[in-house]
Amino acid sequence: MSKITTATLLKYKQEGKKFTALTAYDASFAKAFDEEGIEVLLVGDSLGMVLQGQDDTLPVSVDDMCYHTRCVRRGISRTLLIADLPFMSYATPEQALGNCAKLMQAGAGMVKMEGGHWLMPTVKMLTERGIPVCAHIGLTPQSVHVFGGFKVQGRDQDNAQRIMDEAKGFEAAGAQLLVLECIPAALAKAVTEAVSIPVIGIGAGKDTDAQILVMHDVLGISTGYIPRFSKNYLKQTGDIRAAIRAYIEEVQQGVFPADEHTFN
Ligand code: KIV
User: Fold this and answer.
1) pLDDT under 50 in the chain at which residues?
2) Predicted TM-score of the model (pTM)
3) Does the C-beta of 47 come closer than 6 Å to ligand 1?
């Protein structure tokens, strides 16, 4: 099978073919996910919660991210590998450039950053310098203390409009992928239709171009609670590789996410 690139994902969007993303943090799981056909793997800063047992993602360091990115890179041969920039590692353009370079040299094929209008000049600067960017909007977990908890975003008119403007702004700044987290399904559909870059949803309904989940949620082994928008595929299959195949199949067929995983 050929390697998945940003060009592949763009073609999928244009053809209306849904694709599937998952987090990974080590070589062995990454290899299995790659072999089963996951198109995008994310070394998410969610590792702060699911690997390190922290309450949120804020304590994760650039060194942590580079370590896990190197591990995942060794396990894969075809998936597109995205790595998260952790909290306060891209607050200025200079910081962003230095830390993105570290993640790309650790093996990332793209970097992901959470933010809004303030981040757009940085995204433009990075893409001009050859660093592909995925922008993450909606519920951005690094801002959990500003939101006052992990809450659905974009429920009122002003916030919905802000999220729409951010999506268009990031596309104009050169972002090649967008993650929408925990927003109402109708807003996610409108955003997905309004931009030409592929949109990956998590807790954003079934109409985005792709879905992403945290691997520990898919396998039902997260510490703490499993979010409502997630699904434990291991429970229904009893086998890790079969669970991943079921997740991919349900995304491709538009079965996942169902109404019970969706915010309206
Ligand atoms: O850190 C992470 O795993 C993420 C996904 C939940 C999108 O950002």
Assistant:
1) none
2) 0.98
3) no
